[in-house]
């Protein structure tokens, strides 16, 4: 990390110069006496403000200690990130944690809320005993929609509603005369205006922004527009603000690649599932560009102090959406049996296919996916996948005329039976 | 058996799986879910070219190149000579005026000259990148200079953001055709959903390297497979790989069935 310098080459302690070494780029090095029986030399490295080395090491805390440990120190600054998870998994709380960490360091922070009205957030967070009075909040919850005959769509852009959390009281009433509608454009405009206002007033730009949530924005504010391009442009907008942004989003459909997920520079996923009668929670990092990270799923609790992540514990991870309730165990055992029967059948056909040298690599991959589902207790999905494999195999074995001489040249990869 | 001459991908294990490397002059797909390591793979591919003195181009559509520069720094690769074309569209302006195309002055810049801060959208005119304008731009570039290796990161972003009012599959196909005609060996990254079907782009390329990401109790397991490779034999098994500080390291000897993992 530091350029080699004649004076700073490691030597035994006695010959280390007692003056500071000034290196390229204003980096200061001065030696320090090492512990007695140590053979290491210790240097204190002082970096000037804004040095590229410092910028490289800079991390933004998420406000949750365990999560910071998983992220190897925190988020990389000035980039947009996504927090995803099912409803009630603690996404908003995580967002507030992130803002609180900023407030503690006296950084200006902004919360853009589209889901919940601000006073509800205020009272919800009050239960944790957090003081978020200095938080700026932009209320972008849509008004009651006025159904006028002439023109029902009016931008919200004309009324800026950024307040201190302190001043938030009660539900904002929809304007009687003008109905304000929230669109991506108007939200964008509001944020931009607020940034400009802030810069004018205090010369301190916002460092942290939380958007809660993009799903709401997508659902309510993008009708009739190409939401992919709008979101792309919105993400670009957030990146250009050069604040570290956390976007709350629900992953509605795993089958689709949603724009914000692949455009974001990282995704923190919250999990919630029912284990018997208990709700279990866990957290994982799915993507984090530009840094290594802890790739395991770690347990998480939401208690009086908010979110606590246990970065050294194992999550007894099963899955978040088994959709199993008490009393379903009978049904469960039935479906387990079904799935394993189908899987057995598929395995037999694969062996058969290998014998006849029918290419079935893709089916094997699909089968392994089915087995993953099976393990994770997505029995429905596993069944579906396995059935698909089965029909594929049958079709292929049907197409190729069965050559009777069995030639076990290619040893079939034995996918293990996993019951 | 004498196959065609192949070029190396910069990842030993992967070359082994590809039985030597990629057949030059063709477009290939690198697919995988977000966070699988597609961009790192493609940078390694370009780095291999740079080390051989080839001219290489990275077209960034998905994320701004300044972040790429910072992200690749921990690997300590010398990418100074890499040409980077910033094809991120600007912030969209909501105006009744028609959308402008990307300006012609957009030139690729050398990695070493890349600013560390994000490029700001100009206040007055904003440029939108369309597949048409991008293609035109690349065409001009290819006439001026001979590029050996090109990476488009990503084709999904191109499809999602730049193909308004175009037929997506056809346009992608024509884009790949264009790359082939330009005589460059190109890698196109493709985002895969976590579950479900593979987007149709995968069928259009001459080969597909697919990265898999599986989660189990010991963390994320990563696998790579060659789904398709026209004009060459290739390894059929799925092999595990890791992202280390050397970049992607494919263990081509361990054949791992992902079924074993979870």
Structural overview:
The complex is a heterodimer of chains A (419) and B (262). With 419 residues, chain A is of the alpha/beta class. Chain A has three domains: 6-53, no CATH class; 59-309, P-loop containing nucleotide triphosphate hydrolases (Rossmann fold, 3-Layer(aba) Sandwich), CATH 3.40.50.300; 329-399. Chain A has helices spanning 52-57, 65-70, 91-104, 118-126, 184-202, 214-221, 227-241, 259-263, 329-356, 361-375, 379-399; strands at residues 21-22, 28-32, 42-46, 80-84, 109-113, 136-139, 162-164, 208-212, 244-249, 266-275, 278-288, 298-303, 306-309. In chain A, helix 9 runs antiparallel to helix 10, helix 9 (329-356) runs parallel beside helix 11 (379-399) and helix 10 packs antiparallel against helix 11 (379-399). Chain A starts with 20 loop residues before the first strand and ends in a 20-residue tail after the last helix. The model of chain A is unreliable at 1-13, 148-159, 319-329 and 405-412 (pLDDT under 50). Chain B has 262 residues and is an alpha/beta fold. Chain B has a single domain (22-205), classed as Rossmann fold (3-Layer(aba) Sandwich). Chain B has a ten-stranded mixed β-sheet. In chain B, strand 2 (56-60), helix 3 and strand 3 form a beta-alpha-beta unit.
Main attributes of the structure:
heterodimer, A: Rossmann fold, 3-stranded antiparallel sheet, 11 helices, 17% strand, disordered N terminus, B: 262 residues, Rossmann fold, 10-stranded mixed sheet, 26% helix, 23% strand, globular, disordered C terminus
């Amino acid at each position: 990390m530091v350029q080699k310098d004649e004076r700073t080459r490691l030597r035994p302690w006695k010959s280390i110069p007692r003056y500071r070494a000034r290196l390229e780029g204003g980096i200061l090095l001065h030696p320090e006496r090492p512990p007695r029986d140590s053979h290491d030399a210790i240097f204190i490295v002082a970096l000037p403000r804004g040095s590229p080395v410092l910028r490289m090491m800079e991390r933004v805390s998420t406000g949750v200690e365990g999560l910071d440990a998983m992220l190897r120190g925190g988020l990389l600054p000035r980039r947009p990130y996504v927090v995803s998870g099912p409803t009630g998994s603690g996404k908003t709380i995580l967002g507030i944690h992130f803002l609180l960490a900023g407030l503690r360091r006296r950084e200006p922070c902004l919360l853009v809320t589209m889901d919940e009205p601000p006073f509800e957030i205020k009272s919800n967070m009050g239960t944790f005993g957090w003081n978020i009075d200095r938080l700026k909040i932009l209320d972008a919850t849509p008004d009651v929609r006025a159904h006028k005959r002439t023109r029902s769509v009016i931008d919200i852009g004309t009324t800026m509603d950024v307040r201190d959390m302190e001043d938030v009281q009660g539900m904002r009433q929809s304007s009687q005369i003008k109905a304000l509608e929230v669109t991506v454009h108007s939200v964008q405009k509001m944020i931009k205006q607020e940034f400009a206002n802030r810069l004018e007033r205090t010369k301190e730009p916002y460092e942290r922004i939380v958007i809660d949530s993009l799903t709401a924005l997508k659902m309510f504010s993008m009708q009739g527009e190409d939401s992919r391009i709008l979101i792309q442009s919105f993400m670009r907008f957030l990146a250009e603000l050069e604040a570290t942004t956390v976007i709350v989003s629900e992953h509605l459909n795993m089958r689709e690649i949603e724009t914000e997920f692949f455009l974001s520079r990282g995704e923190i996923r919250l999990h919630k599932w029912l284990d018997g009668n208990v709700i279990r929670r866990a957290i994982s990092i799915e993507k984090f560009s530009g840094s290594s990270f802890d790739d395991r799923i770690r347990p998480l609790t939401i208690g009086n102090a908010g979110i606590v992540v246990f970065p050294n514990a194992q999550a007894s991870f099963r899955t978040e959406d088994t959709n199993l309730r008490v009393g379903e165990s009978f049904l469960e055992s039935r479906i387990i049996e079904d799935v394993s029967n189908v899987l057995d059948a598929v395995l037999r056909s694969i062996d058969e296919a290998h014998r006849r040298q029918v290419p079935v690599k893709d089916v094997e991959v699909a089968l392994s996916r089915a087995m993953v589902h099976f393990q994770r207790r997505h029995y429905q999905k596993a069944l579906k996948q396995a059935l698909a494999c089965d029909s594929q195999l049958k079709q292929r074995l049907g197409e190729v005329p069965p050559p009777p001489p069995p030639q076990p040249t290619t040893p079939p990869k034995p996918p293990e039976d996993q019951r | 058996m004498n196959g065609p001459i192949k070029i190396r991908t910069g990842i030993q294990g992967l070359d082994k799986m590809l039985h030597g490397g990629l057949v030059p002059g063709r477009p290939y797909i690198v697919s995988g879910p977000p966070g699988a390591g597609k961009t790192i793979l493609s940078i390694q591919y370009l780095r291999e070219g740079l080390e051989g003195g080839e001219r290489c181009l990275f077209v960034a559509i998905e994320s701004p190149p300044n972040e790429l520069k910072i992200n690749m720094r921990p690997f300590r690769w010398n990418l100074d000579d890499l040409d980077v074309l910033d094809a991120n569209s600007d912030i969209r302006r909501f105006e009744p005026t028609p959308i402008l195309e990307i300006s012609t002055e957009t030139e690729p810049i050398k990695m070493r000259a890349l600013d560390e801060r994000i490029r700001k959208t100009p206040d007055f005119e904003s440029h939108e990148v369309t597949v048409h304008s991008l293609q035109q731009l690349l065409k001009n570039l290819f006439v001026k200079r001979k590029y050996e290796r090109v990476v488009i990161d990503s084709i999904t972003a191109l499809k999602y953001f730049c193909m308004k009012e175009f037929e997506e599959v056809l346009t992608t196909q024509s884009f790949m055709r264009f790359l082939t005609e330009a005589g460059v060996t190109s890698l196109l990254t493709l985002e895969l959903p976590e579950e479900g079907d593979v987007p149709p782009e995968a069928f259009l390329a001459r080969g597909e390297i697919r990265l898999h990401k599986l989660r189990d109790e010991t963390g994320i397991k990563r696998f790579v497979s060659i789904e398709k490779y026209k004009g060459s034999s290739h390894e059929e098994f799925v092999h595990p790989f890791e992202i280390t500080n050397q970049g992607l390291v494919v263990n081509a000897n361990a054949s791992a069935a992902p079924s074993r993992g979870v």
